[in-house]
């Protein structure tokens, strides 16, 4: 196989060098971001953007800087591939790199698929929506928020998708199962890429690259796949012979065992650790619920746009990890004028105090329940009576039914 690769036409040799160099830059982040950032700022100015976003890491992989990085890496890889081609011409070095590059690519893809797969298996990437999310009007959700809600309410769907990624990642780690792993991984990533495009999820660059490199992993197997599709005899796959020197054979085994150990263990541990630090757990507060405000001591305003009476209060049913800080409990407040504010809350059952942290306006309320089961809140300037609103949780409480006498489509 190595000899065959060495006799590729020049254009195939060049494309391999370009793809390998670009993949190395992309998956390593350009080795060092600082010089690339300076180039990105310069390139952005050429395209009419004076400043790049300075928000720092926020979960988006589709920033303008990310796109400029990819363009710069494409150009850099092209120039390096040209220099490489001029130096080597028709040498055999490229052919000898083909299978090691294929192995490295399989390991990189396996890492990503295992990481994202485990995050879905443990339902940490798209958790079950909480009461604050359920109370948000559908029209106010972003497309990404709608996708996260849709996947989050169906553990079966999310876990099945996670196992598809985990299995394809595991298959990619071993050469004799890499064909099946790459084919399955390409199918999974094609669907993920389609979802990212359809719901404006800012991971389009990464998912698109993972799909592309899954397809590139299939390249050595294309003659056998084509023979299978045509119904002809499928020849056995031949791989390069291992090194003859015992020391190099031993080195090869050691680095593969180390790499496989890291890839098999680290993504799993990272997902579990992230869930431990930033996961969600049921809230211990007994005030959890969606409340409709019945009375508010604040006087109404004839101009509805300035009416700041409360309309709905949501006391979230989850506690979200905050690193080494105390967990965060979410709350949402909707006013009569339609303004909706997100924040957090603290419940001290010993003093019957509910503290709301809403956009910098922090206020503590003494709470109690009247004879009708309503929640009564009192502060120095306000008194409210709130009635529990049980509706609004059908999405998470409906469950699964084999028998449906009529469709429940609301």
From TrEMBL:
Segments crossing the lipid bilayer: 12-32, 66-87, 146-172, 179-198, 210-229, 250-268
Record carries keyword ATP-binding: no
Keywords noted in UniProt: Membrane, Transmembrane, Transmembrane helix
Keyword Membrane: yes
Protein name: DoxX family protein
Protein's organism: Deinococcus xinjiangensis
Top-level taxonomy: Bacteria, Thermotogati, Deinococcota, Deinococci, Deinococcales
């Amino acid at each position: 196989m190595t000899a065959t690769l060495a006799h590729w036409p020049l254009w195939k040799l060049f494309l391999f060098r370009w793809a390998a160099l670009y993949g190395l830059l992309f998956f390593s982040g350009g080795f060092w971001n600082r010089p690339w950032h300076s180039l990105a700022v310069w390139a952005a100015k050429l395209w009419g953007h004076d400043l790049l976003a300075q928000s720092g890491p926020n979960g988006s992989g589709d920033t303008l800087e990310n796109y400029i990085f990819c363009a710069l890496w494409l150009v850099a890889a092209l120039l390096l591939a040209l220099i490489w081609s001029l130096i080597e011409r028709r040498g055999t070095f490229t052919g000898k790199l083909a299978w090691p590059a294929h192995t490295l690519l399989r390991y990189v893809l396996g890492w990503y698929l295992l990481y994202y797969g485990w995050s879905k298996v443990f339902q940490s990437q798209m958790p079950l929506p909480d009461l604050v999310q359920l109370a948000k009007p559908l029209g106010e959700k972003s497309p990404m928020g709608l996708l996260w809600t849709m996947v989050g309410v169906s553990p079966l769907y999310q876990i099945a998708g996670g196992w598809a990624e985990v299995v394809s990642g595991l298959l990619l780690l071993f050469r004799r199962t890499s064909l099946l792993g790459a084919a399955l991984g390409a199918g999974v990533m094609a669907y993920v890429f389609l979802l990212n495009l359809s719901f404006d999820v800012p991971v389009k660059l990464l998912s698109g690259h993972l799909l592309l490199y899954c397809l590139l992993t299939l390249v050595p197997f294309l003659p056998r796949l084509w023979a299978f599709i045509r119904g002809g005899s499928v020849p056995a796959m031949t791989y390069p012979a291992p090194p003859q020197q015992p020391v190099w054979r031993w080195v090869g085994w050691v680095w593969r065992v180390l790499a496989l150990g890291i890839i098999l263990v680290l993504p799993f541990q990272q997902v579990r650790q992230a869930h431990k630090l930033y996961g969600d757990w049921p809230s211990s507060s007994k005030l959890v619920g969606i409340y409709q405000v019945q009375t508010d001591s604040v006087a109404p305003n004839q101009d509805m746009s300035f009416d700041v009476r409360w309309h709905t209060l949501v006391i979230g049913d989850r506690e979200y990890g905050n690193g080494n800080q105390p967990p965060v409990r979410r709350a949402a407040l909707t006013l009569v004028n339609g303004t909706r504010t997100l924040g957090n809350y603290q419940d001290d059952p010993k003093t019957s105090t509910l503290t709301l942290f809403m956009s910098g306006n922090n206020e503590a309320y003494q709470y109690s329940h009247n004879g009708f089961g309503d929640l009564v809140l009192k502060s120095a300037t306000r008194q409210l009576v709130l009635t529990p609103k049980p509706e609004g949780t059908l999405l998470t409480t409906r469950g699964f039914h084999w028998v449906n006498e009529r469709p429940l489509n609301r």
